[in-house]
Write a structure and sequence with these properties.
A hairpin with a 2-residue loop joins strand 3 and strand 4. The protein starts with 7 loop residues before the first helix and ends with a helix. The chain contains 14 helices and four strands. The protein is an all-alpha fold. Helix content is about 60%, strand content about 0%. The protein has a two-stranded antiparallel ribbon with strand order 1-2. It has a two-stranded antiparallel ribbon with strand order 3-4.
Length: about 375
């Protein structure tokens, strides 16, 4: 069904889709819903019908006459590990043993289920792209945040590293983006034949403009005391922020992934970029140890609640809640709790605040913070 194109070649020739022709009970009816005189339009107008997930706002065009929610929504029926015809292994969508919801007699339930994991549409390339993009954006956002509070030489020093690192990680981001496409050779179509309602197109142009500003900043090396340096840093910070956060809206256009519909995602991605950018600059620029370590603590403190909210907060749909719960079970739960939250967010804060300042301790904190961003992105993308 995911590959169905409504038999476009047949419809264009004035024929009906193949499924309509071969159905022996006339259970599938096709036609033009916009034509009030068509059979399908009259049926939809006169019969009680249901569609799948109308709340997504995608305008579903497949109507089910006298449909039942339990038949259209996989989460509407009771799912037990033991079924009428067999038993399946537990997976990340199951409640903990002994905590299954009681089955109400007479309620719809599944009588057959299999342990089938669908192929992931998004994998390590997407989570890696989010990580490299956070670094590329953050290493310019951070000097802009420090500029009003720190001496010019410190900001200039951080920025001298920032422009170079931004260009390197923008290049890696581009490679990952193109490699993840099913047809990489068509990547230029995004720029040359843009569909402006797509955040993929908007993001591609944002990344391109940010790359251009980064090249200018790297080439000229103007101090932030100068007008050109101030303007370049300002443009870089604005475009870097856009590059960091636009993916939240891009993923929000993937209506089939309920967990990605969170309104907090763009803000969370912005804080992640600050964490990643600060951590990288802390590793390469020990002269700014005090300022950068303090900013890393603040960024981690502000970013951690978004992680907790994404996983343990209230979700708009049951599907989003199931996806979030899958991050807390099995090996994913270990990576989330002990890894992304404990070792990579709380521990760096404790190290910086509790141990004497040194390049070693703060470097370890920076590495842990970078690892934490990577782990979280991977868990979130695959949930």
């Amino acid at each position: 069904a995911t590959k169905c194109n409504y038999c476009a070649h047949r419809v264009d020739a004035g024929r009906e889709p193949a499924c309509v022709v071969v159905c022996p009970t006339d259970a599938i009816i096709s036609g033009d819903l916009s034509d009030p005189k068509s059979r399908i339009a009259r049926l939809v107008a006169s019969e009680p019908t249901m569609v799948r997930k109308p709340e997504k706002g995608t305008g579903p065009r497949i109507h089910y006459i006298e449909g039942h929610r339990e038949a259209l929504d996989p989460l509407a029926s009771h799912r037990s590990v033991r079924t009428l015809w067999g038993e399946r292994p537990r997976d990340g969508t199951d409640p903990a043993p002994g905590k299954e919801l009681p089955y109400e007699r007479g309620a719809p339930r599944r009588t057959y289920d299999i342990h089938q994991r669908h192929a992931l549409s998004w994998g390590w390339k997407v989570s890696a792209y989010l990580w490299t993009k956070s670094i590329a954006a953050g290493v310019v956002m951070v000097p802009a945040l420090l500029a009003p509070f720190e001496r010019t030489s410190l900001v200039d020093g951080a920025l001298s590293y920032g422009w170079s690192i931004a260009l390197i990680f923008l290049a890696l981001t581009g490679v990952l983006l193109v490699a993840d496409l099913k047809r990489p050779e068509r990547f230029l179509w995004v720029l040359l034949r843009p569909q402006w309602s797509s955040w993929l197109v908007r993001g591609a142009y944002g990344i391109s403009l940010y790359s251009l500003v980064a090249v200018v900043g790297w080439w000229r090396e103007d101090s932030v005391d100068s007008l050109v340096g101030t303007v370049t840093l300002g443009l870089g910070a604005v475009l870097g922020t856009f590059v960091a956060v636009y993916t939240g809206w891009l993923f929000g256009q993937a209506k089939g992934r309920d967990l990605w519909q969170s309104a907090f995602s763009p803000v969370h991605l912005g804080f992640q970029a600050i964490v990643a950018g600060t951590a990288v600059l802390l590793l390469v620029n020990p002269e700014a140890l005090s300022a950068l370590s303090g900013l890393l603590v603040v960024a981690l403190i502000f970013e951690l609640p978004f992680v907790l909210l994404e996983v343990f907060g209230k979700h708009s749909t049951e599907a989003a809640a199931v996806a979030a719960r899958s991050m807390t079970l099995g090996s994913r739960g270990w990576w989330l709790g002990a890894g992304a939250i404990g070792a990579c967010r709380i521990l760096p804060i404790l190290i910086i605040l509790g141990l004497p300042a040194s390049g070693l301790t703060h470097g370890i904190s920076a590495l842990l913070a970078l690892l934490g961003v990577a782990i979280w992105e991977h868990l979130w993308v695959e949930a």
